[in-house]
Amino acid sequence: MPSSLPLRYGANPQQAPARVFMPSEADLPITVLNGAPGYINLLDALNAWQLVRELRNALKLPAAASFKHVSPAGAAVAVPLTDVLKKAYFVDDLELSPLATAYARARGADRLCSFGDFIALSDTVDVSTAKLIAREVSDGVIAPAYESAALEILKAKKQGKYAVVQMDPSYDPSSAQEIREVFGIRFEQHRHDRLVTPADFANIVTAEKDQPASALRDLTIAWITLKYTQSNSVCFVADGQAIGVGAGQQSRIHCVRLAGQKADLWFLRQHPGVLELPFKPGIKRPDRDNAIDQFLRDDVTPNEKAGWGNIFARTPQQLTPAEKQEWLAKLDSVTLGSDAFFPFRDSIDRAAASGVQYVLEPGGSTRDDVVIQAANEYGMTMIFSGVRLFHH
């Protein structure tokens, strides 16, 4: 393998030349098997790979992530799908392997944001997973290995230009330090190589102490997902997958609102009125995703509705606010993870509206007592991990 890989350009076409390279003469741990991944593709690939590798090692289940602009739109492990989720994720016509199930979940968390994603997979890519990837709009995939038949399926995607990257699963950086350069100035820090441990979930600060195995699994997913999400960040997790990620916001409450809104949309996609929408034959999945998003919005415009005639066989009746609230009231046992402490109770109040039962945050705010009180009022289990998870 070479120690350097030339790229067409950097983050933008005007930023050329560009390359990725090893600081020494060591070989790159990645091999491009097809296509020509770009600068942003590889940033997504390497961050996403670390996420799924950690999930795989922590939970001993195949893991997948759907990355966009250096943050996960979704992350999941291979928990079997219900028939409802299969239909909501548009995979009810496929036989899914465990790895394909993990990606269906990761993609299904936020199908709008996953459009044009870069995929990371923890295990050898099989035919089942390749067939699922082949029918979604995606820029590329990184994995430790590929079955030969699966690789041929992926090579045919995007007229042969789909980026397929193989990662050396044994690779770890030779140095514990990482360096970046901004405006000609170099920053150096210890690489964030701390792994999740059971002790991170031991300090329960609320009156409610319930912590079943499913919650520990979802707390682990939240912890690891936040580690690779641009800060500030908040992650809602349920049933073995992220269901809403709020990333890169300057305010903690805005992170929670964004992630909570995505979690609500994830659950509303499972409403019978959405599952039975009368799409015309041949409507592609991205167009269905956009139409569902409009259908569930309270502020859909007349112009947007006018376009429904191209999508639906008949104009559907939107869910009323009361119908939505009745359905969302069924969402429960959700885990909320935050990469830093909550400075006010407003985040807990918003989280409660989206079925949050378990909360993971570092703690350390001068208002911790107020936040704990809010969690107690809702009967939540709140854990102070003592570990901040900023990622920049």
Provide structural commentary.
The structure is a single chain. The chain is globular, with a radius of gyration of 21 Å. The chain folds into 3 domains: 164 residues, 3-Layer(aba) Sandwich (Cytidine Deaminase, domain 2); 131 residues, Cytidine Deaminase, domain 2 (3-Layer(aba) Sandwich), CATH 3.40.140.20; 40 residues, no CATH class. Helix 3 runs parallel beside helix 4 and helix 4 runs parallel beside helix 5. It is of the alpha/beta class and 392 residues long. Helix content is 34%, strand content 21%. The model has no long low-confidence stretch (mean pLDDT 96). The two termini are 29 Å apart. The strands form 4 sheets. Strands 3-8-7-6-4-5 form a 6-stranded mixed sheet. The chain has a 5-stranded mixed sheet with strand order 12-11-13-14-15, sandwiched between helices. Strand 13, helix 12 and strand 14 form a beta-alpha-beta unit. It has 13 helices and 15 strands.
